What does this fold into?
Amino acid sequence: MFVSFFPRPKLFFLSAIVWTALAMAFWYGFADDLMGSSAPGGDGPAVGVATFWSARALWFDLYFALSAAVFAGAWMWFAPHPWAPWSILGSALILFTSYFEVEVSVAINSWYGPFYNMVQAALSKSAPVTIAQFYSELSTFAGIALVAVVVGVMTRFFVSHYIFRWRTAMNDFYIANWPRLRSIEGASQRVQEDTMRFATTMEGLGVNLISAVLTLLAFLPVLMRLSSNVTELPLIGSIPYPLVFAAVIWSVLGTGALALIGIRLPGIEFFNQRVEAAYRKELVLGEDDAARADPPTVSMLFADIRRNYFRLYLNFMYFNIGRIVYLQTDEILPYILLAPTIVAGKITLGAMNQILNSFTEVRSSFQYLVNAWSTIVELISIYQRLRSFEAKIGGEPLPSIETLTEPLSL
It folds into this structure.
């Protein structure tokens, strides 16, 4: 799965984490000060598209490109790999666009303040607001949105090619070892379908994880600054950084509870793929052999599919009860936390919207597992199926789940 696309995967990913940590430490400790301003995601004077090509932003873009080029060059020299331009430089580009999308969110959050304060002034007639001023603020948002659209479309186009290259690398690797793999149940499906599903799912989860981390780094300081007027929480009282504390505790509790509820789902999804493959294989054999795919055999195989899907639906019902209750409560949580501050009139409408948006971004970052659990279940199932391929290639025993019998009960 990884060795076909990345050079020496374990060492590569470990070195990528270390290099990223060193690059970030050097940026925050020295390089950013060369521009005499805060790091990306901090508070800058510009509001609007100008923030994307300010001296600070361009300096960070150059710093990122140089860091990625040094890392890629070192690996291409140390461990040459035919897919290195896509796996290393392509991954770096996806990482950068993930950072840029976070910067768009920060720019929009900065726009919230002056815009909603202007709306409040207009509605309360506390200050004169002209129609030109109103449209000017809307045009500022339109500029940010236009940049986001252009970058987003180009990114999705590149990611589509990135995913297919990864699938191609896995496909070539498995086809080269096909004589040893063909005896595994559902071998053709694993090569034809699971490789694409794995690349797509892995890329999506990886990008979302990176975005969650970058969003947290960008919005956590913003939330700490904006929540300076929020001095207490309902039932808890006065504590330092109350909104940050609430976001962390609420997200950790939700993630833990939902992971516990959905703990059986990966195994059930794996069995689903097994019974589907057995049914498909029998039907394919029946196309050329009249003795195969007879009604009793097909009925028995389909009964296995029915039983496993009903088990999956039941377990997802438990999971969705917890997930939907949690997410619906999540919608009103910020207002509950801000209730004493709002009632006391300690913040303006603009500041409230900035706080709500920052709180949502921080909370969502901590809720990565909650939002991605269904996809993670699918990825674990695909990984287990492809892992059997790689065990066969390496002459290792097949994973234990390959020999397990699916439970008969729901």
In short: Residues 37-45 have pLDDT under 50 and may be disordered.
